Amino acid sequence: MSLLFSALEVGQGDAFLLEKDDWKCLFDSGGSKSGLESLLRKKKINHLNLAICSHNDFDHTNGFIGILGTRSVTIDEIWLPGLFGSIIQYVVDNGIPREILEPEEYHIDDIDIDSLYDRELKSISCDEFEDNLPMYIRFMDYAHSDLRYEFWPYFRFSFNKLSLLIKLKNIEKIARLAYKRGCIIRWFEPANGCVNNYIDYGFTALNSKEMHQIKKLKGVQEFMYALTLTDENKYSLVFEYAEANTPIVRFSADSDCTCQSVIPYPNNIIITAPHHGSEANQNVYNSIQGGNIIWVRSDRKSRKRPCAAFKNQANRYCLACRNHNFKAELRFEYNGRWWQHINGNSCTC
User: Fold this and answer.
1) CA angle, 56 then 208 then 48, to 5°
2) pLDDT in tens, 194-207
3) Which of 341, 231, 334 is nearest to 7 (CA)?
4) Distance CA 49, CA 36 (A)
């Protein structure tokens, strides 16, 4: 069995590739729409069995838009945050809220996060939702022309509304293109507390659960609030990969998994540094205990990253260190006993 883990050099953002024999999974996709496509072409990769999008931050999603839009890489299955589906369903039912597009300021009332994740909402089955996607595609194709010629002038009135509309466009592009390319789409919503929900292909969800019903948002305020939450770091999806006789690979995305207590881990596992080694996520390093943990930090050079907690780890690697000019893909191969570092540089930050 061949098992490889790579932190891809895509400029800004996260893009991790897991390869088991001929099976390939991409976790997040970096901030460049063309960078990931170019890199995969050089690697002669034109097919992914699984793609996982942790949350709606451009430095995690833009690469998906690039490879799906150019048809350069086929994808069997893609896992998306459940709020994406709720937002799409709202647009199908109601159109794009004028509050995003008109110059008057719109203030979102305080809505308890529980109102979206815990209380009972009217919902539809995922199968029914995906059956309705063709209607959504026709709607958004029309909306694109409207957005281009009618609504762009409004953006000068409010940067916040521009930000919301960009979030909406990214969500709809990923879902629309994935549907058009024939990908199987599966949806995940945040769970109460830290969980260990085995999903498929060796992946366990640490802070989410798979949805079989798409929750429908009630009114424009919930829509706007949900849209603001889609790129919240703490709601980004965290998964672990492990199968029989293989070590764990934990994909932390930008989440700090604040619900977790001290977790003992087995020796010789790979954990991606949460939020590219940000200080805001430093509690993760204190809550995870184990021998010879390999910490992998992706992203570009930064004055503030990695934080001191990352630099205190004995076995750490940076795709780009802030005090050196090197920037090389990090690659590790499992040799049947432990992960062997085969490319890239250890951290010298």
Assistant:
1) 60
2) 788 999 999 999 99
3) 341
4) 16
